[in-house]
Every structure is written in C-alpha cells, then in structure tokens.
Design goal:
- 35% of the residues lie in helices and 23% in strands.
- The chain contains eleven helices and 14 strands.
- The strands form four sheets. Strands 1, 4, 5, 6, 8, 11, 12 and 13 form an eight-stranded mixed β-sheet that branches. Strands 2-3 form a two-stranded antiparallel sheet.
- Helix 10 runs antiparallel to helix 11.
- The two termini are 31 Å apart.
- The mean pLDDT is 94.
- Pfam families: NTP_transferase.
- Its EC number is 2.7.7.24.
- Its cofactor is Mg(2+).
- One of its GO terms (molecular function) is glucose-1-phosphate thymidylyltransferase activity.
Length: 288
C-alpha cells in the first residue's frame, strides 16, 4: 500500500514576518489552511496513510488542526525534521514510517488542481520505479528542469539551471517505489548544503525506471512560498470557488467522494465546522 509523506518543514523565510512564529503551511489560502491543498492531492491519489514532517515547534499545531486523520477515514502521523536539510531528507526522516513500501512525497506549499488531475495521480500511483510531473512554466530557471530528447525521452533533470534545456519544471510531487529511502540515504549534500530530491530522481532515471507525466493546461500548479505567490493562489482559489460554487481541495469532500466517510460522518463534520464552510458540506448531500 502506497504511503504519503507531506513535508511541511523549513523556516518559511521568504514569507517573513508572517512566518516568524508559525509554519507557512498553516497560513490561509483563501478559506482553508495551506496544508489542506497538498493533503487532498495525496487523498486524490488514493493515499490514506500519511506522515506529516515538520519542525518540533509546529507539529503540535498541525496535530491540533489535522488530528490523527480518522475524521476523514485516514491515518495521519507526525515526524520531526530537526534541520531543513533538503527534500531528500524527508525520505530519511520518513524511513521508519515507509517501512519498505512505495510512497508519494508532496511539498506542503504546493497546490495542484484540475479536472484531469485525479486520473493522472491514479496513473502515477501505479508506476513502476518512480514518476514525476512536468509543468510548463515561463521561468524554468527557478525550478528543477526536465530535459527532453528529440523523441520526447527524458535526458536529465537539473536543479535551477542558468541555461534550462526546456520550459518544463518538476513540481513538488513525487511517486517512488520502495527503493527511494535507500537512494536518499546515499545522497550527498549539494553545493548549497542540501540533500537534493533531484539526485534521488536521477537514480531512477539512470536505471531506466523514471516516468514523467506532463500536466496540461487544464491543471494548475501553484507554489505558495512567497508573498506574491501566496496572494496569487488565494485569488485563484477565491475566483474558482465563487464562480463554480465548488470548493478547491476540501478534505471533507474528498474523503466523502472517496467513500472513506459516509453521509452521517459528513453531517457531523459540517456541524462541527459550521458557518459557510459547514453549509457547503451539507449542500453536497443535497446534490446527490
């Protein structure tokens, strides 16, 4: 059974002073905490057993918000990352939780949304080896960039290259088989002193066991790690929800649609939350 790792560590220094006393993943993106969005991404991939990795300061707050996940038919546990040593370090921290199972790693400040997303996540979850995503961006030098050959084959992945070989960035969502922990343990710090997830991904590429799924125009990927990006994400979610009358990445709705909770459990959650959010959850039952 594939397990999920949700990395919500780091200092969030690009968002200071907002994040000087609280994790950026607890900041709101319109009507929901930021952490809800990547959590629902894992849920849409069918992943019910998730470990959230954060700092010792912030984990009690995440526990207060998310609990053990039973309210959504899930299991949520927690692990401390004592230093922000890079994305590959999350695989090391999560090794006792993964226990030789395949996993998916998602970054806590990444928002994914789109009509075909659930289908693509399901497909990625069935991959052999590893699967990453490719997203067309205007400024690829700010990301890990996937290089493609003339026949569309993957030639390599570079972290923040000065001269990118394509405009396809690698978002913060990765699917790995059981060997990811082993490969992460062999990664050495990069020039910036971090354990790069690109080094783990490139191990699968060298073995010929890396798949890349291109996210089309119908899927949005937003990184909410800067004030501008956070504001843009809030505006995006607000516009969608107001126009469509449907919430973006609502864990209660996702759990109900997945069949992990029933109508009565959804009603109970709606009554506990109250307000317009609770009214929306009750409205889901009226549509069926």
């Amino acid at each position: 059974m594939r397990k999920g790792l949700l990395l919500a560590g780091g200092t969030g220094s690009r968002l200071f002073p907002m994040t000087q006393v609280v994790s950026k993943q607890l900041l709101p993106v319109y009507d929901k905490p930021m952490i809800y969005y990547p959590l629902v991404t894992l849920m849409l991939a069918g992943i019910r057993d998730v470990q959230l990795i954060s700092t010792s300061r912030d984990i009690p707050l995440f526990e207060a918000l998310l609990g053990d996940g039973k309210q959504w038919g899930m299991q949520i546990s927690y692990a401390v990352q004592y230093q922000p040593l890079g994305l590959a370090d999350a695989l090391r921290v999560g090794a006792p939780f993964i226990k030789g199972e395949p996993c998916a790693l998602v970054l806590g400040d990444n928002l994914f949304y789109g009509q075909s997303l659930e289908e693509q996540l399901t497909e990625a979850s069935q991959c052999r080896g590893a699967c990453v995503f490719a997203y067309h961006v205007a400024n690829p030098s700010a990301y890990g960039v996937i290089g493609f050959g003339p026949n569309g084959q993957i030639e390599g992945i570079e972290e923040k290259p000065a001269e990118p070989k394509s405009k396809y960035a690698m978002p913060g969502l990765y699917f790995f088989d059981h060997r990811a922990v082993e490969f992460a343990a062999e990664v050495s710090p990069s020039a910036r002193g971090e354990l790069e997830i690109v080094d783990v991904v490139n191990r699968y590429l060298a073995l010929g066991e890396l798949e890349v799924c291109k996210l089309g125009r119908g899927v949005a990927w937003l990184d909410t790690g800067t004030p501008d990006a956070l504001a843009e994400a809030t505006q995006y979610v607000a516009a969608l929800e107001k126009r469509q009358g449907q919430k973006v990445n609502c864990p209660e709705e996702a759990a109900w649609q997945q069949g992990w909770i029933g109508d009565e459990e959804l009603k109970q959650l709606a009554s506990q939350i109250g307000g317009s959010y609770g009214a929306y959850l009750l409205g889901l039952l009226e549509r069926t």
